[in-house]
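Key result, reporting period 2: structure in, sequence out.
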């Protein structure tokens, strides 16, 4: 059974992913010049408990960034995410959690080509890589423990297009349209498995966040339960803005350890010149 801290940190990374799934059904083919976040966007979030004796306790933080691969053919995008546990809850749970994910994406079709992941939970360390063959529609996943001299675990799975990984889906949604009252499914590859994510777009509402008062959509993904990305009981609601940036600004989780809010705290851009 996973510790509460790793569940919260894992969910922190996944909450943006599931926002992406809701927009896919009416997707149009993106082009490289539509990718506004490719100019060096960086997002910073914090998570904290909202109810019970741990109310207000900081659980962790995470950062997302998107930058072009300067020296690679076709100018693929490198998407990077870091999730780190912190604060009083880390001491209480007795474990530190860090997850680093990098995705290489072809911007013309916006399909994931490769995923690299580092997962650290206390003394437990796992390094994994996934390579996507879109002609054969196969993903090959390799996992190893850098602290152990053992052969890596290798899994090869078929997938149906269009498939994304846990990180590339975050950015894919921001090129799509969302409709209140609609539900969607989309295949997602993560940790040597392929899941079909079911997501409902529930309502439209003006909310207050770090960007001010904005119009946002509330999305409820079915990500908890047997056969899903997170086992066990839980529920999550996610708010993403309806402006041109389509930023996920707030997620609310109900877990067996309490209620958690994950909020956008800062957005910045570092202009990036593409290689000639």
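The corresponding designed sequence is given below.
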């Amino acid at each position: 059974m996973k510790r509460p801290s790793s569940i919260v940190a894992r969910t922190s990374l996944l909450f943006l992913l599931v926002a992406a799934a809701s927009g896919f059904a009416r997707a149009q083919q993106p082009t490289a010049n539509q990718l506004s976040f490719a100019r060096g966007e960086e997002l910073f979030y914090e998570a904290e408990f909202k109810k019970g004796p741990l109310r207000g306790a900081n659980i962790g933080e995470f950062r997302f960034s998107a930058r072009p691969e300067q020296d690679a053919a076709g100018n693929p995008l490198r998407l990077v995410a870091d999730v780190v546990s912190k604060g009083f809850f880390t001491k209480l749970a007795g474990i530190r959690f860090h997850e680093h994910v990098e995705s290489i994406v072809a911007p013309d079709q916006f399909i994931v080509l490769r995923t690299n992941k580092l997962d650290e939970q206390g003394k437990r360390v796992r390094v994994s890589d996934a390579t996507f063959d879109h002609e054969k529609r196969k993903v090959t996943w390799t996992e190893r423990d850098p602290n152990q001299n053992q052969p890596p675990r290798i899994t090869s799975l078929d997938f149906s297009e269009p498939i994304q990984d846990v990180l590339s889906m975050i950015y894919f949604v921001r090129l799509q349209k969302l409709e209140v009252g609609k539900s969607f499914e989309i295949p997602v590859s993560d940790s040597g498995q392929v899941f079909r994510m079911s997501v409902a777009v529930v309502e439209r509402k003006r909310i207050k966040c770090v960007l001010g008062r904005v119009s946002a959509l509330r999305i409820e993904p079915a990500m908890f339960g047997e056969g899903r990305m997170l086992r066990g009981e839980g529920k999550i609601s996610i708010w993403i803005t309806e402006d041109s940036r389509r930023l996920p600004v707030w997620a609310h989780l109900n877990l067996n350890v309490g209620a958690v809010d994950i909020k956008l705290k800062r957005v910045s851009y570092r202009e990036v010149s593409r290689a000639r």
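Residues 4-269 form one domain. The helical segments are 4-21, 87-93, 168-172. This case is discussed further under Risks and Mitigation.
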